[in-house]
């Protein structure tokens, strides 16, 4: 499958310009709970308002450039959080405090985060993942899920990021927003509040309800989540209202989304970015494009480190660096296309024609069914993930892992290794290191066979004695003839 390189680059540029337009237009109204009646900008010409929606993606750009596309995990992004992201707002602060306590990402997004796990912090920063995985929504979802779980765990905020990234990635090769939305829906659990909210908007549009009626239905439906405010299911739905009821008109779409109220900088920015990806620069009104200019203004990345000096200062520079990265991402995943998130029919950038939409849609749906749908039911809270060149491991408890004397907690461990076995079965050795008063019962060996996705599953039980303080259990995995050792810290908090 092919994507024309010039078309790709034009859409990336339009994505960032559209993001800046929506963020700047919506920021003055952020948090207003009433229906609005805006007409356009109230900022001065050339004034770009800073927005964490774009700021955080500059950190992910830095991460991709410095550790490479195949090292992007919740664990690695957690380190970039603690090093380069300044705010302690809401879920941002909770995840950083949790990591400071020794709770690894993605579990950092679950602990003490019941109010904010369904909030907006993750789906607003998905464009970087879509842009380095153009027309490959299953790869964009892999990245956005790792990103979102750092501060949203297994909450609706993570499902929102998966939906938006898939929608935006598919916009590179599909020309119908309905197709893009349906791709996004295939990439999240069907019973999630996120999926329910998007389907409500689709039904309202198809049944002739007004955008305001759709907005009010969403508000009523989700009033039980986070006091009905600043939560992902409603705000992503408001962005979708803009995309549908705007009917392809950039200005109408933007204004409709922002007029729904709530997290208006986020809804406006996502609408602008998504339409930019769908239609390219030709879809952005010239007067608005000239009004906003090309600058990037930051608010939540540090001004005194080497990172700031390397952060792009314009949408043009950001576009160039993303386009350069995309080639590395496509190459990296083309040579390991058998991993659990991928499918071998990869997009190739070309000087020629883009492959027709019908073929692209069939390829996308095949990849999603093979790679994304099977993992949706396995997104569980309090999961601890770790990876090394040896394997990737997810460890998930069957209950919230809280210290209670003389009790047991059962864990499921999924081990994935897809390259080092050279066609031979491999037995991994497992050791458990525990503090006094704690015992682990479980397998000490597990075999991975070179069949399918090279995945093995096993279970272990942590038996807690007369202990009342925090517990850290270290799970160690080794393989005969291999020097690498993987350590998984499993926290049980008092």
By CATH reckoning, the class of the largest domain would read Mainly Alpha
Q: What can be said about the biggest beta sheet?
A: 5 strands, antiparallel
Distance between the termini: 52 Å
CATH superfamily of the largest domain: ADP-ribosylation/Crystallin J1
Query: Approximately what portion of the residues adopt beta-strand conformation?
Result: 5-15%
Counting DSSP E segments of at least 2 residues, the number of strands comes to: 11
Q: What Rg, in angstroms, do the CA atoms define?
A: 22 Å
Could you give a quick summary of the protein structure above?
The protein has 494 residues and is of the alpha+beta class.
Description:
This protein is α+β, with helices and mostly antiparallel strands and 494 residues long. It folds into 2 domains: 375 residues, Orthogonal Bundle (ADP-ribosylglycohydrolase fold), CATH 1.10.4080.10; 111 residues, Immunoglobulins (Immunoglobulin-like, Sandwich). The chain is 44% helix and 14% strand. The protein has a 5-stranded antiparallel beta sheet, with no helix packed on it. The longest helix is centred in the N-terminal third of the chain and has 22 residues. The protein starts with a strand and ends with a strand. 50% of the residues are buried. About 1% of the residues have low confidence.
